[in-house]
Amino acid sequence: MAVRLVSQTLASSPASPPKPRPIVDPVLDPLMHGILERLAISEAVARTKYTSGKPVQDTPREQALLDSMGDRATQYGLTPAQVRTFFRLQIEAGKLVQTALLARWKREGSAPGEPVDLATRLRPALDRLGTSLMRDLGRLCALPDDPSRMARIHQARERIAKTAKLEALQRAAFDEATSGLCLSAPPRVWTLSMTH
Fold first, then answer.
1. For a Cys staple, 43 with which of 7, 15, 38, 191, CB 3.0–4.6 Å?
2. Is the separation of the CB atoms in 105 and 111 below 8 Å?
3. Are 140 and 31 in contact (CB under 8 A)?
4. Which residues contact 15 (CB under 8 A, 6 or more apart)?
5. How far is CA 13 from the centre of its chain?
6. d(Cα 90, Cα 94) in Å, to the nearest integer?
């Protein structure tokens, strides 16, 4: 599936260019695909943490990311609150994936694939992706804030999730990651736990 393929590519040949995707919505599609790519990297992070024993929660790293992105918000026509909300939801969606996968692999006794170095490969990949996500979010939030924008977000989310053939865990994380686009605060508290 699309998400897992990105994760596998990170583990094997990170320099290989991704296959071009058909673009239906030039504003939403790049953002949605970027969110899926970030979730795929979360799978690779989970594999590394399974091997290292490091915890999912990394509060200093999370706060540093939120502060850094918030400080750059106006460069992309966004408010710091919009950017922090967006990346807070990306972080929470990623932790949902990591927590569920670590629990699954602990039960099974092993994790698939080889771990990828967190500091030298995965975090730099996340940092690069963060910049493109903020640019794409700025393009979306520049559209009029009206029901047609919300309908467009919903249509793109459903279409891309269907095309990617997401499993239940991936779909739950994708829905969380896309739930606060252009909002200044998370829409609700997420308590979903997916361990299967």
1. 7
2. yes
3. yes
4. none
5. 20
6. 6
Q: What is the pLDDT along the chain (196 residues), one digit of tens a residue?
A: 444 434 443 443 444 445 556 779 999 999 999 999 999 999 999 999 999 999 999 999 999 999 999 999 999 999 999 999 999 999 999 999 999 999 999 999 999 989 999 999 999 999 999 999 999 999 999 999 999 999 999 999 999 999 999 999 999 999 999 999 999 988 764 444 444 4
Please answer whether residues 50 and 115 qualify as being in contact, where contact means their C-beta atoms are separated by less than 8 angstroms.
yes
**CA pair distance 173, 128, nearest whole angstrom:** 21
CB 133 within 8 A of CB 31: yes
* Alpha carbon distance 141, 5 (integer Å): 29
Taking alpha carbons only, the member of 123, 126, 163 closest to residue 35 is 126
DSSP 185: S
Joined together, the tokens standing for residue 95 give 């932790």
How many beta carbons lie within 10 A of that of residue 87, not counting itself?
A: 23
pTM of this prediction?
Answer: 0.85
